Amino acid sequence: MKFVLEVTIDKGKTAEDTVGELGRILRYWGGNLGHYELKPGDGSAVYDSDYQEVGQWRIDDGDAS
């Protein structure tokens, strides 16, 4: 299994406060992962604190790089 988190940091709140927003995203999704089976294909959009979509996380099968 491979956990992939992709966040674009060149717009919105994430660009204004990169460290703060990335920390918030990691804390939020770290706490929210219990709602998923964490199997390949699971994932969700990632939002900044203004609720603007800035990326996604997903579970891959781990075979691809």
Question: What this model shows, in words?
Answer:
- The chain is an alpha+beta fold.
- Helix content is 31%, strand content 29%.
- The protein has 2 helices and 3 strands.
- It has helices spanning 12-16, 18-32; strands at residues 2-7, 43-47, 53-60.
- Strands 1-3-2 form a 3-stranded antiparallel sheet, covered by helices on one side.
List keywords for this structure.
alpha+beta; 3 strands; 2 helices; three-stranded antiparallel sheet; 31% helix; elongated; 65 residues
Fold blueprint:
Layout: E1 2-7, H1 12-16, H2 18-32, E2 43-47, E3 53-60
Antiparallel strand pairs: 1-3, 2-3
Percent strand equals: 25-35%
Q: How many strand segments?
A: 3
- Taking pLDDT < 50 over at least 5 consecutive residues as the criterion, the unreliable ranges are none
The computed structural class is alpha+beta
Strand order of the largest sheet: 1-3-2
Oligomer: single chain
The portion of residues assigned to helices is 25-40%
Averaged pLDDT: 89
Radius of gyration, in angstroms, nearest whole number: 12 Å
Q: Which sequence of SSEs, written as H and E, runs from N to C?
A: EHHEE
End-to-end gap: 12 Å
Q: How is the biggest beta sheet arranged?
A: 3 strands, antiparallel
Number of distinct helices: 2
- The best one-word shape is elongated
